[in-house]
Amino acid sequence: MGMSKELNDHLLRLLHEAADILHRYAAELNREWKRIGEALGKRNARVQEVFSTLCAFVQARLLPYGGEHPANGHLERIAAFHPEMIIFSLNLMENTVHQVLKAHAPGASALHPAVRYLFFKWNEWLLYEVNEQSFKISRDSAWKTESLWKDAVILFNEWILRAQTLAESAMHICFGFSYFLPFNRCALFQFVNQESTAIGLSGHGVDHEQIQRLRVELDNIPMLKESVGKLKAEVHEFRHFRPIYVPRASEQFPRLYVDLFGLASLVIVPVYVPTEGRMIGGVVLDRGSGRFFEVDRRLFPALMKFGQSAGELLLKWIKAPKKEWEGMAESLSPREIEILKLLADGASTLEAACQLYLSEFTVRDYISSALRKLNAKNRTEAVAKALRLGLIG
Questions:
Q1: What distance in Å separates the CA atoms of residue 169 and residue 320, rounded to the nearest whole number?
Q2: How far apart are the C-alpha atoms of 136 and 76, rounded to whole Å?
Q3: Is the keyword Hydrolase in the record (predicted)?
Q4: Would you call 300 exposed, middle or buried from its count of C-beta atoms within 10 A (0-12, 13-18, 19+)?
Q5: In the chain, fewer beta carbons within 10 Å around the N or the C end?
Q6: Which residues are paired to 245 by β-bridges?
């Protein structure tokens, strides 16, 4: 047996394994998918139609290859849907599977990869191949116009996987968003404190260190606060995946940020991890200081895929320092934590000394000790690490 056939058979077995998992938990999944469909219907009938059609199609035929296509009109209906809606619905479905497995399956972590692979193939098959192999699409179809976004996703994934550290990953993500998509500036943020605070990780086309110094409280930006589910609206989980276009930043963002960066129009892309069922950060994109622009929604499928790839990569590095911290023999002292909190709020060494009734020399000593314990090169990195680790709020 040739190696290619062995690999083919092995990957097909993985798909069957995932299909078996979905069969095994069909009752729980159907119940959750029905609940989600009903909640979607209260907001947008078209989105509910896409989601329900894809659920019915997947339930009828769990493997994306093999056998005859059911002659029930599902494929023709799916072909009329915008790629953004298909990605959105498949993400919702996959997220549900991961959550059901966590709640009901022993050893759920070992089951996630097969499920990830099955939904990866569903995305690939329904987005890239069905329209070309099964039936004709009209000239105005969203599939055929600007289909190069698929190439951008492949190039982006290959680029970011070269990174070897968290800092490199953040820089590669920002460069990739700007280079492979029609944007000039990019800033990457991580959410901490139960998604109530965003800290800057990296920037491209903008002052990198200025982005790293940013700590944004989402309470000050209601649109973002709502979008990450802080308001716990009835269908808050559906907002995790989709980009947000802001035509006029001055109407949505505090004047401080608008003036500091010359924000005009911008796009916000969620950085989402399907297996975790949560958003771990966001990417802010624009075309330069003071430049207003309209966004073509045909970009949204690529933006969603970029955000998901970025989330999967970042999660690995974000988890790593937490494990490293848990294994450290010494921890930050209460005074060191207190000083790092003040630095995070923008206080200088002298201001921290005055607030704590300490000498400036003593505060510097505490900062040096905290830098050593956190293995940080400077105060900015120390504050960012302490925020990521949940040591300061």
A1: 13
A2: 9
A3: no
A4: buried
A5: N
A6: 267
CA distance 165 to 168: 5
- CA 253, CA 266: separation in Å to the nearest integer? 11
Q: Round to whole Å and give the CA distance between 218 and 281.
A: 12
Find where tokens 């796009």 sit. Answer: 267
- Cα separation of 268 and 285, whole Å? 6
pLDDT tens digits, 21-32: 998 999 999 999
Contact residues for 361 (Cβ-Cβ < 8 A; gap 6+):
none
Q: Which helix (H) or strand (E) holds 190?
A: strand 185-192
332 by DSSP, 3-state: which?
Answer: coil
Residue 243 tokens read as 């980009």
Task: Provide the pLDDT confidence category of residue 5 given band limits of 50, 70 and 90.
Answer: low
140 within 8 A of 40, measured Cβ to Cβ:
no
Question: The sheet that has 244-246: what strands, in order across it?
Answer: 215-217, 197-204, 185-192, 278-286, 266-273, 244-246
Q: How far apart are the first and last CA of the chain?
A: 58
| The pair of three-digit structure tokens given for residue 4, joined into one six-digit string | 């290619």
Q: Which residues 6+ apart lie within 8 Å of 202 measured at CB? A: 167, 170, 171, 173, 174, 187, 188, 208, 211, 212
d(CA 127, CA 1): 32
Residue in 220, 221, 225 with CA at minimum distance from that of residue 236: 225
**Alpha-carbon distance 35 to 391, whole Å?**
37
* Rounded alpha-carbon distances, angstroms, from residue 109 to 98, 115, 127, 188: 9, 11, 28, 28
**Six-digit token string for 329:** 């023999």
Name the least confident of 275-279, 287-291, 329-333, 344-348.
329-333
Query: How far is it, in rounded angstroms, from Cα 280 to Cα 276?
Result: 9
- When mean pLDDT is compared across 34-38, 177-181, 212-216, 368-372, the lowest value belongs to 212-216
Cα separation of 266 and 183, whole Å? Answer: 9
Q: What share of the chain is helix, strand, coil (3-state, %, to 5)?
A: 60, 10, 30
Q: Which residue has the tokens 């790629």?
A: 83
The residue among 300, 200, 202, 281 whose CA lies nearest residue 240 is 281
